[in-house]
Amino acid sequence: MPARIIDGKQIAADLRADLAREAAALRERGLVPGLTVILVGEDPASVIYTRNKQQVAAELGYKSELIRLPATTTQDELLELIARLNADPTVHGILIQSPLPPGLDEEFIFSQVHPDKDVDGFHPVNVGRLWTGQKGLVPCTPAGIMHMLRVTGIDPKGLRAVVVGRSNIVGKPMAALLLNAHATVTLCHSRTRDLPAVCREADILVAAVGRARMITADYVKPGAVVIDVGVNKVPGTKNKIVGDVDFEPVAEVAGHITPVPGGVGPMTIAQLMKNTLIAARRAWGLPEEG
């Protein structure tokens, strides 16, 4: 039997609808979540991403601001802006769009966003909170995947999970979240020996390696949950993208699978909006969940 498709597009739409209702209830109390996105330079993909994030925030009823800065912006000028936003009580989430232009120390700049406003979940304090099981802001893609698993009725507790890819944005925080959910986790990378055999042990297999269709059917345990984080452009096409998973053959083996597009991708912005609302509620001294 072919795998059940995990519809990330619908799950994300449902989450956004819940957030919109919660934001509306808060506005009746005079409380408005605020998200500020900073774009430095004119990278075409970044322009699209930041516009989408701002638009979704506005649709949910958040206070949404996009600050566009020229590529010639100095590091001191950017740090001054971040300091001002850190001190602004109407701004609950700050997101700096990556990549930054050459000459700007991206790692240092990101670390200057206050951890409680770091809705990307990249600040070292939030990374430490995640790995020590404390409450913090969690990177959006892994947090969105955990939301998808919950909605689909998949409990990682006691299961074997394998994450392929060890990036700070997806792989490492994904492993931490699964570990915190009581899965037994293996984090793999390009130097993992006999990777297909390791992956075949997984009840939950997360592919976040950035190589088109790398995960083939012989990597997958029958009935496993396969989460495809990859977004890879197909050479010779204008806009076609594929994931890290060879979808059709793997779907014949897996029990559940996310498609590309329409799987993990839509969850990332939805989770960003949830992180912003969490940050706002914490700032107001309210419980995280409304």
TrEMBL record:
<keyword id="KW-0658">Purine biosynthesis</keyword>
<keyword id="KW-0378">Hydrolase</keyword>
<dbReference type="GO" id="GO:0005829">
    <property type="term" value="C:cytosol"/>
</dbReference>
<comment type="pathway">
    <text>One-carbon metabolism; tetrahydrofolate interconversion.</text>
</comment>
<feature type="domain" description="Tetrahydrofolate dehydrogenase/cyclohydrolase NAD(P)-binding">
    <location>
        <begin position="139"/>
        <end position="282"/>
    </location>
</feature>
<dbReference type="GO" id="GO:0006164">
    <property type="term" value="P:purine nucleotide biosynthetic process"/>
</dbReference>
<keyword id="KW-0511">Multifunctional enzyme</keyword>
<dbReference type="GO" id="GO:0004488">
    <property type="term" value="F:methylenetetrahydrofolate dehydrogenase (NADP+) activity"/>
</dbReference>
<dbReference type="GO" id="GO:0004477">
    <property type="term" value="F:methenyltetrahydrofolate cyclohydrolase activity"/>
</dbReference>
<keyword id="KW-0560">Oxidoreductase</keyword>
<dbReference type="Pfam" id="PF02882">
    <property type="entry name" value="THF_DHG_CYH_C"/>
</dbReference>
<comment type="function">
    <text>Catalyzes the oxidation of 5,10-methylenetetrahydrofolate to 5,10-methenyltetrahydrofolate and then the hydrolysis of 5,10-methenyltetrahydrofolate to 10-formyltetrahydrofolate.</text>
</comment>
<protein>
    <recommendedName>
        <fullName>Bifunctional protein FolD</fullName>
        <ecNumber>1.5.1.5</ecNumber>
        <ecNumber>3.5.4.9</ecNumber>
    </recommendedName>
</protein>
<dbReference type="Pfam" id="PF00763">
    <property type="entry name" value="THF_DHG_CYH"/>
</dbReference>
<dbReference type="InterPro" id="IPR046346">
    <property type="entry name" value="Aminoacid_DH-like_N_sf"/>
</dbReference>
<dbReference type="InterPro" id="IPR020867">
    <property type="entry name" value="THF_DH/CycHdrlase_CS"/>
</dbReference>
<feature type="domain" description="Tetrahydrofolate dehydrogenase/cyclohydrolase catalytic">
    <location>
        <begin position="6"/>
        <end position="120"/>
    </location>
</feature>
<dbReference type="InterPro" id="IPR020630">
    <property type="entry name" value="THF_DH/CycHdrlase_cat_dom"/>
</dbReference>
<keyword id="KW-0368">Histidine biosynthesis</keyword>
<keyword id="KW-0028">Amino-acid biosynthesis</keyword>
<keyword id="KW-0521">NADP</keyword>
<keyword id="KW-0554">One-carbon metabolism</keyword>
<keyword id="KW-0486">Methionine biosynthesis</keyword>
<dbReference type="GO" id="GO:0000105">
    <property type="term" value="P:L-histidine biosynthetic process"/>
</dbReference>
<feature type="binding site">
    <location>
        <begin position="165"/>
        <end position="167"/>
    </location>
    <ligand>
        <name>NADP(+)</name>
    </ligand>
</feature>
<dbReference type="GO" id="GO:0035999">
    <property type="term" value="P:tetrahydrofolate interconversion"/>
</dbReference>
<dbReference type="InterPro" id="IPR036291">
    <property type="entry name" value="NAD(P)-bd_dom_sf"/>
</dbReference>
<dbReference type="InterPro" id="IPR000672">
    <property type="entry name" value="THF_DH/CycHdrlase"/>
</dbReference>
<dbReference type="InterPro" id="IPR020631">
    <property type="entry name" value="THF_DH/CycHdrlase_NAD-bd_dom"/>
</dbReference>
<comment type="similarity">
    <text>Belongs to the tetrahydrofolate dehydrogenase/cyclohydrolase family.</text>
</comment>
<comment type="subunit">
    <text>Homodimer.</text>
</comment>
<dbReference type="GO" id="GO:0009086">
    <property type="term" value="P:methionine biosynthetic process"/>
</dbReference>
<feature type="binding site">
    <location>
        <position position="231"/>
    </location>
    <ligand>
        <name>NADP(+)</name>
    </ligand>
</feature>
